[in-house]
Amino acid sequence: MPFVIAEPCIGVKDKSCVEVCPVNCIYEGGDQYYIHPDECIDCQACEAACPVQAIFPDNGVPEKWRPFIQKNKDFFEQK
Ligand code: SF4
After folding, report:
1. How confident is the model at residue 41 (pLDDT cuts 50, 70, 90)?
2. If you measure from the C-alpha of residue 47 to the centroid of ligand 1, how many angstroms do you get, rounded to a whole number?
3. Is a pLDDT exceeding 90 seen at residue 78?
4. Alpha carbons 51 and 60: distance in angstroms, whole number
5. What is the CA(11)–ligand 1 centre distance, in A?
6. Burial class (CB in 10 A: 0-12, 13-18, 19+), 77
7. Does the predicted TM-score (pTM) go above 0.90?
8. Is there a smaller number of Cβ atoms within 10 Å at the N or the C end of the chain?
9. Which residues contact 44 (CB under 8 A, 6 or more apart)?
10. Does residue 70 line the site of ligand 1, with CB under 6 A?
11. What domains, with CATH codes, occur in the chain?
């Protein structure tokens, strides 16, 4: 159950999550940050650190932002 960064990150990119992630699996990607779904160890540190509440466990992403689950995955597949 990786964590996912959703819409509130866009245009904000506060970066607090990057600083707290123990495995450095949060990457900068243009309009927002992204969490690598295979590298995330589900520690929840980023979720608590995010000032705009953009981060959710993949099974807890609000309905309107569910496409961000795929957007996070796609970002790494395009690399
Ligand atoms: Fe990193 Fe933990 Fe957030 Fe996963 S849940 S992205 S390991 S801080």
Report:
1. very high
2. 8
3. no
4. 18
5. 21
6. exposed
7. yes
8. C
9. 3, 57
10. no
11. 3-77 (3.30.70.20)
